[in-house]
Design a protein that fits this description.
This is alanine--tRNA ligase. The chain has about 575 residues and is of the alpha+beta class. The chain has four domains: about 220 residues, Bira Bifunctional Protein, Domain 2 (BirA Bifunctional Protein, domain 2), CATH 3.30.930; about 100 residues; about 55 residues, no CATH class; about 150 residues, 2-Layer Sandwich (Threonyl-tRNA Synthetase, Chain A, domain 2), CATH 3.30.980. The chain is about 40% helix and about 25% strand. It has 19 helices and 18 strands. The strands form four sheets. Strands 1, 2, 3, 4, 5, 6, 7, 8 and 9 form a nine-stranded mixed beta sheet that branches. Strand 12 and strand 13 form a beta hairpin. The termini are far apart.
Length: about 575
Amino acid sequence: MKAEELRQKFIEFFRARGHAVVLSSSLIPDDPSVLLTTAGMQQFKKYFTGELDAEKDFNSKNTISIQKCFRTSSIDEVGDDTHGTFFEMLGNFSFGGYFKEEAIKYAHEFITSKDWMGLEIDFVSVFKGDDNVPADEESEKIWESLGVEKIKKFDRDDNFWGPTGNEGPCGPSTEIYVKNAVGNSVEVWNLVFNEYYSKSGVLEPLMIKGVDTGMGIERLAMVTQKVSNIFETDLFTPLTSVLPHELPERVKRILADHARAVSFLTSDGVRPSNKEAGYILRRLMRRMIVHGADFENLFNKVGEIYSPAYSELNLNVVLEEFKKENDKFQKTLKSGLKELGKLESIDAAAAFKLYETYGLPFEILKDTEISGDKAKNLSREEFDKEFARHQEKSRAGAEKKFGGHGLLLDTGELKAVDERELKIVTRLHTATHLMQAALRQVFGPEVKQNGSDITAERTRFDFFFSRKVTPEELKKVEDLVNQKIAEDLPVGFVEMPIEEAKKTGALYFFKARYGQKVKVYFMGKDLESAWSREFCGGPHVSHTAEVGKFKILKEESTAAGIRRIRATVE
């Protein structure tokens, strides 16, 4: 089966069994504990903890998704038979709807039935237990009742799924292994049974037991298409086929993998930079640039493969951003490679200097096609230590300059490192309230918040809206915000019971968890006549004129039905 058919089969199977289909969330997660989205369960984390209600939001306790994922841990290894960065995760989830028996029976039927995948299970694994958590004998018995004879018992490293980030839902898992084309056993599906909540390693029972499963479509395609590795599936062969024939196979795989990752990261709003997700994107882009190829054809082929399933994929923006990074990098690349050629060997200090001065990332320095054996003794750990040492040095300089100690403000939504940044994010936070009110005035009540993130550089605001926004409409929003700033409206708040607050018509974020009492911030003479009313905890300016000039930098799609605006204040 082709990958597109696998997606449709998965949706068809679980939809017929009462699961709500939920669109993939962005690769930029709402969860501040992780840099990028690494698993399907991340967007559902609060449903497992009971903070949000699945029945209320999805009309079902059971959901499925095909989630875009990215794992940074695989960047260095891309090029072999198994490692990739971007991948799609098929997953079914239950938040108190069903547990082990139904989840295992669903998985068994989908994998083995000739009506679905028609594969033969080689073996399954279950958690064998340890001093803290008992063995998962229940899953073992369920598999036996289905006629699966080969059951292996593994320890915590293999069959106990920890939380994403520092804390969260977790529990024992059971994995399904099938044979690939060369007879090797491959794990295709991991079923996690969330029974506990982990905080700093301490486990407490979850009030609502849940199911969280994940099956990489690349591996499923590999076994159903009877090929020996993921790069021989229809998700990769169209990409490698447009690359120059003379390129080594390993380089073709790197370029194909990175082209997919760059396309989705860029389309989800990431831009090349020297920090966080932007740093990851820059590493991928520059690794591609060094190897050289007809990248326009490669990115267009990514669009052909994925645009039918992911309408948010924006190849025009991808090509534009890649060209900008290429033009920027070419200025120093030649000098960097010349400097690299002078070295007999590359240790951590030399590697960081090449990165800092010429922008040559670790992956390029380790690439034998570029540096030969010069960096054979250089490890990622050593490079990261050198990188961290220089970051600490820079941070110490900033603290000395500003008198700060780490982040002065970090609410998850707002981040500021010092008093100067605190004043900027306060202005931006108030501007974000004004922008949401302006969006609703221009587009109507369809506009609803889907998350925000505010730093000293910009505000990022995600909202539900069903179509593309025109430049003229954006200008209306920008002008309306600046009009309200010029009116110098007073900003105040009242604290009241949440049910009473809802009756005022104040906006609130449906994913947020509020207490019995909330603060309603308003902009205007009073709450009743205010132009903007929202549940919020602050901080805000006292009058809108303090915001300064508001400017929209960019508007784009992040997923089907979700738009994103980046804006700043001057």
